[in-house]
Amino acid sequence: MIPCLPKLIDPSQGAFVDGRLMLDNVFLAQELLKGYSRKHMSPRSLIKVDLRKAYDTIFWSFLEKILMAIGFPERFVKWIMECVSTSSFSISINGILHGNFKGKRGLRQGDPMSPLLFVICLEYLSRLLHNRTNTTAFKFHPKCGKLKITHVAYADDLMLFSKGDFPFIKVLIDALDEFGNVSGLKLNFDKSSIFLGELTDYELNYILHMIDFKEGSFPVRYLGIPLAHLKISVAQYAPLLDSITNYITAWNTRTLSYAGRVELIKSVIQGVHSFWLQALPIPKAVLDRITYICRIFLWGCKCARVAWADVCLPLEEGGLGIHDTHIWNSALLAKPLWDIHTKKDNLWVRWIHGVYLNGRGVWEFTPHKRDSQLIKKIVLIRDQIVSHFDNTQAAIDYLDTIHTNGKLSSAKVYNLLKIKGETHICMSFIWKNYIPPKFSFTAWLAFRNRLATFDNLHRLDVVNICPFCKGGPETVPRLFFACPFAGNIMFGIK
């Protein structure tokens, strides 16, 4: 089934289909929202739809019919329906399972086949919308007419687009109602909303009176990312900063070694914000705040032992290998740049070529003042990448060597964009797999001359003398090599 989906499923669906990404829908939705803030533009509407208990309400009869209609063999369909319809359920009361009853509709949560079947069911809505809007009477959302875009969907998160007049909005709503009646997938009006642009107060009130949707407000969260008709403000990144802060407060820094904190920053904290960083050009103030949160978590106080710029150096250059968030944001946004260059069948890429590029390549394109922040950022990253090579073709050839199955390696782009420093041979001896990380971290601090030796604590007005041998000031070289007491311990280690 999986190999068939890219050919069967409409390009507007981005979930569970090979070669399609969640962020493609985010990029396209953000581009279409850009015109909602401008005056003297044509009317436009966007309906954000949430389906109520999507997986639990699909009619089995509908699923079987659409599998047959798409062209799957009858025998294969019977196997699928046997898997779906033989499920049974029990109720847990005080930890004890009671009863056993069979379901009559819905897909099992956690079944690896369920997402694929849901996408196939949603294909009915895609074809229904295309059929209803494939007339000269229907007016598409601005900048959607060339590709006849009516919606984007990621599983049960849908966005529908049309011109902002009631007859065209009603076409979309009627299609949703018909889809709900035949499939069992009903709208959740509490979580659904409509956004209208460039309408008079009378037109706005009339449309809201005629439909059951509430009027939405910007920014709107779509697939976890805030989308807005204007540039997203720093305050609107609060959910991102809060999620990082919540992760940190869940850990007790007093019981974590420095090495443990480094690993948590690399694997957890930077993993949390990477999704945002690859979806949006994050403002510098937000990136600086993320850096501040990570720095405080690493050192446990406002007094850092090593400058953050040095912490973000690669291991071989004397750093800890933590990503610089500013460069990492650019490296992640190099992916859509490469997609625009290579994925000509992608819906968002086709939209970019039709609206912005108009027959030109992304490597020659110059953005205008009123173009989106995303496209301006992508062009800026393009210029940064090209600046590392003799010409544009050399940059393209390099990027062509650092992708796997069409996916650009963000780590290698990061290494390209980051200024190269001096390599220290001793770092290869410090960071060994067989050395406990906390010992490697101590050796790294010694290399940086940032251990809490008396010569580094002179501001505290302490007596700078080695507490072991009393033979001179306590420095890193004396602590590890010159002090006879420390030397005896070092030689005694087997």
Short précis:
The chain has 494 residues and is α+β, with helices and mostly antiparallel strands. The protein contains 21 helices and 11 strands. Helix 7 links the parallel strand 6 (193-197) and strand 7.
How would you summarize the topology of this molecule?
Elements (H helix, E strand, L loop, with lengths): L4 H4 L13 H12 L10 E7 L9 H11 L3 H12 L2 E6 L2 E7 L11 H20 L17 E4 L2 E7 L2 H18 L9 E5 L3 H10 L3 E2 L4 E3 L2 E3 L10 H12 L8 H20 L6 H16 L8 H4 L13 H8 L1 H9 L4 H11 L15 H14 L5 H10 L1 E2 L2 E2 L1 H8 L9 H4 L6 H11 L28 H7 L1 H9 L2
Parallel strand pairs: 6-7
Antiparallel strand pairs: 1-5, 1-6, 2-3, 4-5, 8-9, 10-11
Helix pairs in contact: 2-14, 3-4, 3-5, 5-6, 8-9, 8-10, 9-10, 12-17, 20-21
Secondary-structure content class: alpha+beta
Largest sheet, if any? 5 strands, mixed
Radius of gyration: 29 Å
As a percent range, the share of strand residues is 5-15%
Low-pLDDT parts are none
From the N-terminal CA to the C-terminal CA, the straight-line distance is: 59 Å
The helix fraction, in percent, is 40-55%
> Judging from the principal axes of the Cα atoms, what is the shape?
elongated
Overall pLDDT: 90
Domain Reverse transcriptase: 1-227
Pfam families: RVT_1 (PF00078), zf-RVT (PF13966)
InterPro entries: DNA/RNA_pol_sf (IPR043502), RT_dom (IPR000477), RVT-Znf (IPR026960)
Protein name: Reverse transcriptase domain-containing protein
Report what the structure shows.
The chain is α+β, with helices and mostly antiparallel strands. The protein contains 21 helices and eleven strands. The protein has helices at about 5-10, 20-35, 60-70, 75-85, 115-135, 165-185, 200-210, 240-250, 260-275, 285-300, 310, 325-330, 335-340, 345-355, 375-385, 390-400, 410-415, 425-430, 435-445, 475-480, 485-490; strands at about 45-50, 90-95, 95-100, 150-155, 155-165, 195, 215, 220, 225, 405, 405-410. The strands form four sheets. A five-stranded mixed β-sheet has the order 4-5-1-6-7, with helices on both faces. It has a two-stranded antiparallel sheet with strand order 2-3. A two-stranded antiparallel sheet has the order 8-9. A hairpin with a 2-residue loop joins strand 2 (about 90-95) and strand 3. Helix 8 (about 240-250) packs antiparallel against helix 9 (about 260-275). The longest helix has 20 residues, at about 115-135. The chain is elongated, with a radius of gyration of 29 Å. The N and C termini lie far apart (about 60 Å). The mean pLDDT is about 90.
